[in-house]
């Protein structure tokens, strides 16, 4: 079943075309990696899917209600020096949350604790967000999106500035969540990511889609291959725009 169907989509900022004739179908249960060079249009594509921007040409059809889509943005607007706990960060994402004068309801807190448990961070509920590692903090942001009970989760570079061990932990968590939730993740950590993804969309103004089912995915994540080399290792070709002759 298609959850998202993008047809002939184009988008420009101030007449500069960033996405051109994009076609993509995202199926229920997919784990889609969106990769591509800096400025290639990946974040813009996520924002269009989330209706944070409107396409100038083409269409995006969704078979689920808007509230079924959870979003973990690239730069969470949160000052990590602000003295807020992991639990409070998660509570901010609880859709039914009605902030009371003296705190949140028991149900809100139970729901937030459940989300923290899902990401393995329950024991850090009372820790200040600034005292957590990058990987732990990211898991808290994922818990915040989980609190709204999404069927699809879109994440924009969830492992930026996290070490390889932390990256793997985040992707392993996403793979576990993928048992019930469709995952769409923008990332530059492709050597790690491709070991978890079921399909990959390479975005550089245009979009090239590869299904990764039935492909040997034992990619050595200690090697830092470029996107074209990786896709080529998977037996695919890409038009990524690097100087590799494709
Ligand atoms: N609000 C904006 N106004 C004008 N131009 C923008 C705006 N947002 C992004 N752009 C431009 O659109 C292009 C695509 O940006 P986008 O953030 O979608 O790329 P990206 O693939 O996510 O990049 P990165 O990997 O660096 O995060 C870039 O050239 C960027 O400078």
TrEMBL record:
SUPFAM superfamilies membership: P-loop containing nucleoside triphosphate hydrolases
GO molecular function: ATP binding; ATP hydrolysis activity
Alphabetical list of SMART domains matching this protein: AAA (SM00382)
Residue ranges of the TM segments: none
Keyword entries, A-Z: ATP-binding, Nucleotide-binding, Transport
Domain ABC transporter: 4-230
Superkingdom per UniProt: Bacteria
Family as reported in the entry's similarity comment: Belongs to the ABC transporter superfamily.
Name of the featured protein: ABC transporter
Lineage: Bacteria, Pseudomonadati, Campylobacterota, Epsilonproteobacteria, Campylobacterales
């Amino acid at each position: 079943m298609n959850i998202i169907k993008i047809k002939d989509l184009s988008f420009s900022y101030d007449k500069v075309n960033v996405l051109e004739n994009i076609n993509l179908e995202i199926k229920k249960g997919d784990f889609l990696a969106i990769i591509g060079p800096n400025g290639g249009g990946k974040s813009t594509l996520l924002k269009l899917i989330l209706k944070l921007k409107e396409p100038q040409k083409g269409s995006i059809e969704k078979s689920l209600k808007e509230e079924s889509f959870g979003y973990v943005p690239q730069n969470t607007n949160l000052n990590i020096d602000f003295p807020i706990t992991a639990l409070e960060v998660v509570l901010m994402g609880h859709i039914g949350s009605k902030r009371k004068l003296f705190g949140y309801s028991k149900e809100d807190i139970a729901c937030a604790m459940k989300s923290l448990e899902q990401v393995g961070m329950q024991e850090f509920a009372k820790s200040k967000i600034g005292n957590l590692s990058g990987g732990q903090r990211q898991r808290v942001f994922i818990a915040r999106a989980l609190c709204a009970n999404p069927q699809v989760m879109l994440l924009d570079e969830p492992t930026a500035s996290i070490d390889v061990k932390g990256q793997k932990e985040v992707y392993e968590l996403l793979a576990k969540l993928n048992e019930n939730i469709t995952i769409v993740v923008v990332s530059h950590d492709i050597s790690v990511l491709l070991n978890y993804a079921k399909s990959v969309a390479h975005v550089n103004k245009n979009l090239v889609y590869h299904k990764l089912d039935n492909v040997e995915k034992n990619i050595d994540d200690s090697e830092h291959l470029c996107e074209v080399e990786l896709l080529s290792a998977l037996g695919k070709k890409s038009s990524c725009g690097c100087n590799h002759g494709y």
